[in-house]
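Predict fold of dolichyl-phosphate-mannose--protein mannosyltransferase; 743 aa.
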Amino acid sequence: MIHPEPSWDHHVPLPKLGPLYSRLLVALVSLICFINSYDGDFVFDDSEAILNNKDLNPDTPLSNIWKNDFWGSNLSSNSSHKSYRPLTVLTFRLNYLLAGGLYPVGFHVLNIGLHCVISALMIDVFATLIGGLACDGTAKRLGHVPKASLLAALFFAAHPVHTESVAGIVGRADLLCALFFQLSFLSYCRAFQGEGMKSDKFSVSWIVVSLLLCAVAMLCKEQGITVLGVNGVFDILVICNLDIYELTHKLLVRRKTADVGVWISRGLIIRLALLLFCGSLLLYARWRIMGTGPPAFTEVDNPASFAENVFLRIVNYNYYYSLNAWLLLCPWWLCFDWSMGCVPLIKSAGDWRIVWLLLLWACLIGLIKQALCSPDSSKRRTLTFGLVLLVIPFLPASNLFFRVGFVIAERVLYLSTAGYCLPSLCLFNVPLLMCLTDPLQKLLQAAMLALLGMNVVRCAHRSQQWTSEQSLFTSALSVCPLNAKVHYNVGKNLADHGNQSAAIKYYREAVRLHPKYVHAMNNLGNILKEKNELQEAEELLSTAVHIQPDFAAAWMNLGIVQNSLKKFDKAEQSYWNAIKFRKKYPDCYYNLGRLYAELDRHVDALNAWRNATMLKSDHSLAWNNMVILLDNTGNLAQAELIGKEALKILPKDHTIMFSLANVLGKQQKYKESEGFFLNALKINPNAASCHGNLAVLYHRWGKLDLAKKHYELSLKLDPKAPGTNENYNMLKRKLEQRQRTAG
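Predicted 3D structure, encoded as tokens:
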């Protein structure tokens, strides 16, 4: 199975390196591109997939990762995204375990390392696709295209579109999937290595290994199953040595019937049957695991899939494909999210953007024609496998088989980038270019290396933007100014860092761009509530729950605003609506308890707070409010019991210690009360109220010198502390009287 070395390999502007040095060079370039991201934070989707995912915690049963989706939700839940990637979640869990917590450095370092390994392995993949399975007399592989495969691997390693997959930790799924995709393909190729091997002779064990690695790739990300298609095409074109040029020449030029029996062998039928069986089994297993059916996406996630007109739906899908192609060709406009108005729908045949999809198909048809009809066999093979790698891994994201939850996602192009890199090599196989004078060829080579250098710089810059949410979100403003989610995320980041005034501007713009953006309304309403702009806050939150009646958080926030406006009946109804749509909502029960306490419905308040602590045992505010309410109503014994129960769960909560100490002091349990005050001050030594109340305790207890000390400490921390000055003056008079009596 020997293929001649492509005559154009020597035109590639790279030195001929050995296998080890080639891999080291590619790995080094990969490292330079993305090393900036090693000390980045958890950003964007990392919050849901890692920070809020209980499956990463070592205390959570390991079996949960096989029952839950990528985001930690049960697969049977209607809210689940159905993304089943247990092996990826397992690597997150290992990161957590090795680092002893959620520290992003380890997560980022592993992502960068994976990309380096994948890029180095691409040399073998490209060499096999371009040069075939050539062997010498000892059955040793020959590297037919060492320079071409190295250049393609370098362009793959340094493609800026990879930044989301490498610098974003959730991109681990794409990296692991790509790694096992490569190993599955290379294992499939190993099945045909050996002296005298022909298409009907192959190693069953290596085929089985390849199928198992395909299953592993699919457990990292669903896209992994597409390696079966690549393996099948490689088998037909390379192992069975199907001559596409001769076949198309017979069919289209001579109009003769092709003798398919020449290249269809018993071995091929067996192998294709194995691939088909494995693919069907994996899809069936995936369907069974998915449970309730496909995930439910909304119109804002993928507006084209909700278009009623089939023609416009197809046009917009093709427009999305053209944008993906543009990202591969010119990856300078990159964005973390392309939904919510970033790509407006094409709504008529007169929209000028239709030109882009026409151009896309013109280019694809041209490439397909060259792949089928070019008399140069190496060019045909390079173009064919370029198209195969470009299209097949992209199919799960194409909306052809099922609706996807995004418009464009840069991470899904990770494997397809390999398909983009292969056709670019054909530039060195164009006869006109190969006949250029030496200076012009050097100029072409210099331009190619300059492009590679620009990509490296762009990767480094883009990976730096991914190190924090602030830089990531603000970088998207110039790329997708019409994207409401971009403005929302910029506003949320500003609000999280305390800059609420600036956040208001971005939340308002998000609502303007997308008038039904309930999450932006909710967050904006919260900020306005804190600024005491209650009327506008009520209007926004009322609109949000009108648009989405099951939005529990908005109902609760509406209740808080209505409570502040003294609309108690409406507030109570809003709280109960929130609980109706989210049964386990401890914060809502807490706020409901505050409403009841304000209305002097003490029993209802205690019941609400007790519900909050039952749903969330460490709900400090609910525990503390129960102690305070029982204290204020004279139920000191019950308050003591509640306080001590709370401290069993929250042994270092200084606010509960403070409230319990007050209760014990009123019961004249001075020694025990003193202990809780002192423990609270160890945790929070600058609490003026704690010093003041401890001084009152000592005052009552007769320890006047200690009382004086803590009154003075309290006044030093808060000179205007209510009642403390008066109590301190009383103590001073008492001390003066004692001195006079002693004198």
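The radius of gyration is 34 Å.
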